[in-house]
Amino acid sequence: xxxxxxxxxxxxxxxxxxxxxxxxxxxxxxxxxxxxxxxxxxxxxxxxxxxxxxxxxxxxxxxxxxxxxxxxxxxxxxxxxxxxxxxxxxxxxxxxxxxxxxxxxxxxxxxxxxxxxxxxxxxxxxxxxxxxxxxxxxxxxxxxxxxxxxxxxxxxxxxxxxxxxxxxxxxxxxxxxxxxxxxxxxxxxxxxxxxxxxxxxxxxxxxxxxxxxxxxxxxxxxxxxxxxxxxxxxxxxx
Length: 238
Fold this sequence. Notes:
There is one protein chain. By secondary structure, the chain is an alpha+beta fold. It has helices at 29-38, 57-64, 82-90, 105-114, 144-153, 161-172, 176-182, and strands at residues 13-14, 20-27, 51-53, 74-81, 92-94, 117-125, 131-141, 154-159, 187-188. The strands form three sheets. The chain has a four-stranded mixed β-sheet. Strands 2-4-8 form a three-stranded antiparallel β-sheet. Strands 1-9 form a two-stranded antiparallel ribbon. Helix 4 links the parallel strand 5 (92-94) and strand 6.
């Protein structure tokens, strides 16, 4: 039997189409159920707070305990516009300081305060929710990014709590092949970012204006990298 190749240490993998990407979040029923019913986030969903999206189904299962953790009982698959994800990545800052990437810690902190998105890489998970030797993307959205995620980028919202329970039941029964077959098919995303550490082009650059934030990006902001990141699990809710 051929052993499947190990993915690169930092790679964005997701269920996706040519125009959309599916990410996962988990909420309490008061928010999750109306969101799935209406296909959009309710007014109660606070658009002024940071929210974290995860393209990995199994990482979401690790985070929410297969939908059993308090306040995370409803697992949502949120299909978003691919261009929205690209915008968020292109305007993201790393969630932690990296020597040699940022000019200094103070510059990173200033950039982090103004960036509409944060990139965090954490170990991908297997069916037993054990860590794997490669990373999975988490993307934190705040301010403009959070509002656009909820009101512009969201294409559909599905309640996948039954799927989470079915996969978990198969794992507990030792039916690993069936459990694996139930998982969403997550393949690498060919995105313009993150490709490497590079400064965001200044406003007078020839880079397409459409991909810039509505306000000028600080010169010391860095686009997230898939080349050499490491990080720990952020303390956040979905």
